Structures are given as C-alpha cells and as structure tokens.
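A reminder before we start the practical. When you read a complex entry, don't treat the lines as separate problems. The point of joint prediction is that each chain is placed relative to the others, so the output describes one connected object in space. Small molecules and nucleic acid strands, if listed, are placed in the same frame. In the example below there are two entries. Take a minute to note the order of the lines before looking further.
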Amino acid sequence: MAGYKGLFEINEKINDGKSFYSFWRKTPSQTTVAGQWFDMSMSPGNPAPQYYAASPLIAQQMKRSTDGGIPHGTNVTPASKFLSRFLVMSASGTGLPMPYKLCDYLLYYPFVDTGTNDEQILTNGVTLPRYTDGAGVQIMAVSVAGSVGLQPTFTVNYTNSAGVAGRTSRLHTLSTNTFNGAIMSNSTTGAVSTMPFIGLQSGDSGVRSIESVTFVTGTDVGLLSFVLVKPLMTGVILEQTAPSEKVCQPNDGVMPQIYDDAFLGLLAMPNGSLSGVAFHGEIETIWN
Amino acid sequence: MTNQEMLSILKGDREAKLRLFNELTDRVQNGEPLTDDEIPIFETLKKELLKVSGVVVSMEAQLFGRSGTRLS
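Here is the predicted structure of the whole assembly.
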C-alpha cells in the first residue's frame, strides 16, 4: 500500500491535483434521543438518505456508485486514496455535544424480524466488497421499522475475521428507543451495551459475514437491518460555534484509507433530538 | 398494516407486492405522507417491481421481390 513520507509529500500531491474536496449536509427528520447512537445515512440531505431497501434477509453490498453516501472522489486504483481532512459543524446547539464515527458501510442484511423467536437464517450470496477478510469490521443493528419498546434479547451468529464460523455474539437487549435509524443494540439503560456495535464473542475483533439472528427471549414488532461497517475515524462536535475538524496526519497521526467506491456514512450519539437540526461538513481526500 | 404484515408481503409473490405498492403510491398521490416504517418497505418494493427483468423486442419486416412478390 502506497503511503506518504510526510506533510511535504502530502502538499505535493494536493498541488499535483491528486486530491478531492466536497461539501455535504444532513438534516435528520428523526426525533433522536440523548445517549442513543443513530445512523445518519438514513437522514435527508445531500447525499440523499438510503433505507437498507432490499429483499429480506439477503446480503447486499453497499457502494458509493449504487447506494450513495458521502462523496470522496472517483476510483483511483492502482493508486491509493486517503482521508486527509474531515469537518462537521452543526447549525444549532440542540443535541450537542455529539460524538460521531465515520464508517465505511460494507454490507447489510435487510428486514430482520424482531417478532419471532425462530432462528432467522441469512443468505450470503455476496461477500464483503472491501476489507474482505473482515478485520476490524463491526456489526450494527439499525431500526428500519419501529419497535414498541418490549426489549427482547437477541444474539447474532457470525463468521469472524479469521474465517471461523459459528461464533455467537453477546446477548443484547433491544433498545426502548424506536425511531428509524436508531442503533438498537444500544440500550441507554441496560447493563449489556457495547454501543454502537454488537459485542463479539471473546477473542474476536472483526466479522466477515452473519449467518443468522435469533431473538432469544421476548419479541417486538420492529424490523432491523444488520449492517457490517468498518469504523474509520471518530470525533466530537462540542458546540455550535466549534466545528469538529480532523486534519488526519497532524491530528491523529494516521490517514484512513478510502477504497474505491466506498460508501461513507456517519454514526452519531446526540444529546437530544436532532429533528430539523442541519449538519454541514467538508471532506478532503488525496491519493498517490 | 403492521410491520410483520408488510414483511410477509415482501417475502411473498409479485401480485401481493404490486397491490401494496399501488396502495402506498395511491396514498402519496392523495397527499398522505408515508410513515417512517413504510418508507423502507416502499423503497424495496420500488426497487423490486421497477427493475428491468428482461427486454422483449418485437420486429416486423416485409420483403418485395422484383416481380412484386411480397414476403412478410
């Protein structure tokens, strides 16, 4: 993998035109709740929302070219593309401070039913489009049709990043918060809460695929999409007058690689309702 | 309609999907917004029902010989 020797070389690439800049914005319509992680890819704005809309229980790859997501420039292979700068600001103080995670959304399993205790077998006709070995890839359970807060428990059966099948997640309790886009494995009151991602079996650090989901005790009426994501970067918006800006090399000492056709989206944990709150952001990538 | 009823239709045959799609479309046309629960279902139906599954090409041709004989 190509990299950069230092800031001088990064500036050189920008001057060579091997860079990309874009503006983006999101204005959630959902009434989010303090302390509840939330998938902002389902919110209106530019890029347009996506709804994990596909045939139930069948794995679907996510790509910039087919599903949207935050823009990051064209495909650059055989070069390598990196995130060089990312900025998020809020047009309101409502819901702040707010931690967020920029993720590469890789694959999802749509419409898992919370209303049955039968094991729901998922179909894996496709594999991860990026991070194909699953290293560092995490699972999130996203509400796509509201529950009513009955708090059933569930586990996920998956193949880990070493290729070992039959792994079982920690037992999670469904959140009582039921708005669409809520990360439902995250209970703000429950004892088991590895938010925003599903707790993996001891010793595991990544997921290659999910084979099934089982609601162990209790049921509800909601529908979930289980999404495999690779977290790339974290940040916090502290207040309206203080945009969160990451200049990757000097701030973090690391520049996340952005693969061709990656779907970039944000997870956020607001401090209240984000309904109608506008978020504006910038993204810059460079390649060599 | 409950989430489970809509999910059952998504897992079912094309006719049922078309009925639900038309029902939701009619509501939108009448100015009634879809609920948050219905939007992912509607988007899925739209993808499944409106995707091109095949193209039928119909051709017609006529040939006229020097003698005026026509083949069609």
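Discuss with your neighbour: The interface with chain A takes residues 2-4, 6-7, 10-11, 36-37, 39-41, 43-44, 46-48 of chain B (CB under 8 Å). What might explain this?
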